[in-house]
């Protein structure tokens, strides 16, 4: 193609490109804002597909505060009442407290969260998480505990009246 033909093609396309850009800007400016979702649709959307990483993060922040405050009641707000994992966490909290040790930074970082299935108020999640380095505070000083390796687990959550709670945790099959 000759230079003259290229110039003709370019000069023919420029008005179309500019027109398309102007049209896009006008549409963006003149389109009315989307209506706010109704409370019912927000609840339905939440029930349909929560952000499971965010749900686990909220629960883990409660758990972290419970350990830092040495407060079993805060820990109970994370788990389904009577669950084995609650009993285990309460025993761990009590064991540290009995030795005069308080833990801070007890955080599980979710590296990957995938839903496996849902049945009634329960949802099963395939989770890869890692314990960050918690700190133990005692009479003899402060010690940073080692970081855990990434662990693959299946976590079962239950939708309770006050939000999601952990019902069960088990290591995933390799």
Notes on the protein architecture:
This protein has a domain at 52-171: Nuclear Transport Factor 2, Chain: A. The termini are far apart. A four-stranded antiparallel beta sheet has the order 2-3-6-7. A three-stranded antiparallel beta sheet has the order 1-4-5. It is of the alpha+beta class and 174 residues long. Mean pLDDT is 79; it is low at 3-37 and 41-46. Helices cover 44% and strands 30% of the residues. The chain has helices at 3-30, 39-48, 52-69, 72-76, 84-98; strands spanning 102-104, 108-119, 122-131, 135-138, 141-144, 151-160, 163-171. A hairpin with a 2-residue loop joins β6 (151-160) and β7. The protein has five helices and seven strands.
Q: Which key phrases capture this entry?
A:
single chain; alpha+beta; Nuclear Transport Factor 2, Chain: A; four-stranded antiparallel β-sheet; three-stranded antiparallel β-sheet; 5 helices; disordered N terminus
Short description:
The protein has 174 residues and is α+β, with helices and mostly antiparallel strands.
> What is the helix/strand order?
HHHHHEEEEEEE
Strand order of the largest sheet: 2-3-6-7
In whole angstroms, the N-to-C terminal distance is 61 Å
Q: For the record, what CATH class of the domain at 52-171 applies? A: Alpha Beta
On the 0 to 100 scale, the average pLDDT is 79
CATH topology of the domain at 52-171: Nuclear Transport Factor 2, Chain: A
Number of helices: 5
**Major sheet description:** 4 strands, antiparallel
Helix fraction, binned, reads 40-55%
Structure classification:
alpha+beta
Number of beta-strand segments: 7
